[in-house]
Amino acid sequence: MARLQPATSQTLYRCYRTRGTTFADALALVLSWYAIWIAQKPSTAQRTFGYHRVGIIAALVNAVSLVVIALLIFWEAFSRLRHPEPVQSTPMIVVALIAILMNTVISFWLRSAAKKDLNVRSAYMHMLGDAISAAGVVAAGVVVAFTGASIADPIVSILIGILILWSSWGILKESVNVLLEAIPEGMDMEQVERTIGDVRGVRAVHDLHVWTVGSGMVCGSCHIMVDEQSVRSGENVLRAVTEKLEHRFGIAHTTIQVEVEGCEPNDMYCIKRAAERAGEHDQH
Fold first, then answer.
1. Where in the chain is the domain with CATH 3.30.70.1350?
2. Distance between CA 193 and CA 210 in Å, rounded?
3. Cβ atoms of residues 56 and 122 within 8 Å
4. Domain 8-179 is in which class?
5. What is residue 214's three-state secondary structure?
6. Mean pLDDT of 175-188
7. Average pLDDT estimate for 151-167
8. Of residues 82 and 283, which shows the higher confidence score?
9. Between vectors from CA 67 to CA 65 and to CA 69, what angle results, nearest 5°?
10. What percent of the chain has pLDDT over 90?
11. What angle do CA 138, 142, 147 make, to 5 degrees?
């Protein structure tokens, strides 16, 4: 085995100094915490949906910051490939080992909430990415120190940058989709329409919209066509549609307009006949 040398290039040292337990990670945690706090504030007359979108904006900022960090890592790695610069490896490895411990603990702490909240997930990916990056710092530092193969340093840095881009892509995509009021990931709109149409009493569905306001808050609106019937019967159909949407798709906030087939708003005769039939139905 080669004798341990106190030298490795500056790539991972600078990358870790940029990405470790430094300002970027602290900012990610503070931003996520602030978004969680402000999202709990009640809605107002100016913001009837409350502050749920703040968490999505925080997730987007965290994802974009990860992309920027990955680009900086690529830039530094390619620079070190052209101009290798040795540094002391021992301090770098020691600090990286401490970072692995700290970021792993924080990642486990955030893991449960990250499954339900996009904002927390973005902070979780920050911490998990740091733990993996620090592990790469240790691995590359040891390889270079024992073998002298300094090329391992920038190669590992590039791999870390690719990992960061890959981990941030899902957060970036989902946060942009929410801001564009897209449907939740994995939802099939044709299935939603069929589910509404299968409710007894619904003859047709149109003007269907589903969108996400924030993590765990999915909204929907549609028009349903029903037969001429009493108000009570129409309310039963409406309730059945609402319960189906919440139970099967998690659409907890729904706005459904019920339309009666065959009657125009200004057709008084049709409305009168519908009322008569509703009265006859109630008597039976």
1. 189-283
2. 11
3. no
4. mainly alpha
5. strand
6. 88
7. 82
8. 82
9. 70
10. 7
11. 155
Residue pair 11/77 in contact (Cβ under 8 Å)? The answer is yes
Q: Tell the residue number behind the tokens 């085995």, with chain if given.
A: 1
DSSP structure class, residue 181: T
Q: 254 pairs with which residues across the strands?
A: 220
**Tens of pLDDT along 87-143?**
556 666 777 777 778 878 878 888 777 777 888 888 888 788 778 777 877 887 777
* DSSP bridge pairs for 217: 214
**E strand segments, the chain:** 8-9, 86-87, 202-214, 217-226, 251-260
Report the distance separating Cα 113 and Cα 121, nearest Å. 8
* Residue 13, token pair as written in the block: 């040292």
Asked if residue 272 has pLDDT above 60, the reply is no
What is the per-residue pLDDT for 24? 67
Q: Give 260 or 176, the one with higher predicted confidence.
A: 176
| Structure-block tokens of residue 46 | 């100016």
Pick the CATH number of 189-283 from 3.20.20.60, 2.30.30.140, 3.30.70.1350, 3.30.70.920: 3.30.70.1350
In this structure, what token pair is assigned to residue 207? 């003007």
Mutual angle of helices 118-147 and 10-19, in 10-degree steps: 160
Rg (CA), the chain: 28
Q: Which of these, 158, 154, 13, 26, lies nearest to 95 by C-alpha position?
A: 13
